[in-house]
Amino acid sequence: MKTDKNATMPNAHLHELFIDELRDILGAEKALLKGLKKMSSSAQSQQLKDAFDAHYKETEGQIARLKETFGSLGLSARAKKCKAMEGLLAEAEEIIEEFEDQPEVIDAALITAAQKVEHYEIATYGTLATFAKLMEHNEALELLKANLAEEKDTDLKLTDIAMSVNVA
Known about the structure:
mainly alpha; disordered N terminus; 6 helices
């Protein structure tokens, strides 16, 4: 994977890890699209359904930005299976099954699962943005920071929704 260009960039030792993590988060975002559909259909609150639907559209935009990020590095966008997201989505499915007959609890359970996903994404985008900055991949940095900002915003929205739907 190393090229002469990569060898001369600052902190070139991070490049292969950076690309591997980009492929991982691309796979994660693609998997999340399916999970968001299921979470939206399981939500009781219209506010939460709307939040999941809005995040679905946002995730499509994040995938487009990730593809741009690969392009800015002269690479084709190739996803890899993200085992962490698979686990988080499997846990979300368990939660849905466990609490589907408790409408007063299901939204709280879904928010719990969704915030775990958001925190994973925030950690990943934060790390990727740091790597991009260290390697002076400035275009990639801006694209990754945009995704990071959206994930943080989604996390805050979920917290706000939790404060309203969790009150009996």
